[in-house]
Write a structure and sequence with these properties.
Elements: H1 7-128
């Protein structure tokens, strides 16, 4: 046999049921809020990480730029050094040429003196004859 419930028992059961529904609803709401907070924290963490990564990338780009500048400077320095070496070699050649010219002029002077002496000797011999 089913027991009949009194209206107050039915009201109590409905009240309990409503109370349980409220509790479940509140629990779901709390879970939803917790999930939202977790998502927000993750997003904030992601933003922080992205900013750090951007900062790192910027720093790396700057370092690369400095390396390229240094490379260009070194390249320019190497080129300048090569040009200096070439100029020094040309100077050495010019000095050699100058010394050779001096020697040739000296030899020409000597030749001139020898010619004059030879002419004077010939003239003396002619006078003697």
């Amino acid at each position: 046999k089913k027991r009949k419930r009194t209206p107050s028992q039915i009201d109590k059961k409905k009240a309990n049921s409503r109370e349980e529904d409220k509790k479940k609803k509140q629990e779901l709401e709390n879970q939803r809020k917790a999930k939202e907070e977790e998502i927000q924290l993750k997003q904030e963490e992601k933003k922080k990480t992205e900013k750090l990564i951007e900062k790192e990338i910027k720093q790396i780009r700057q370092e690369i730029e400095e390396i390229w500048i240094q490379y260009d400077v070194n390249k320019d320095n190497n080129q300048i050094q090569q040009e200096i070496d070439e100029i020094q070699n040309e100077l050495l050649v010019l000095k050699e040429v100058h010394l050779i010219r001096k020697e040739i002029l000296g030899l020409m002077d000597d030749l001139e003196v020898i010619k004059e002496e030879e002419q004077q000797r010939i003239m003396k011999e002619e006078e003697v004859e």
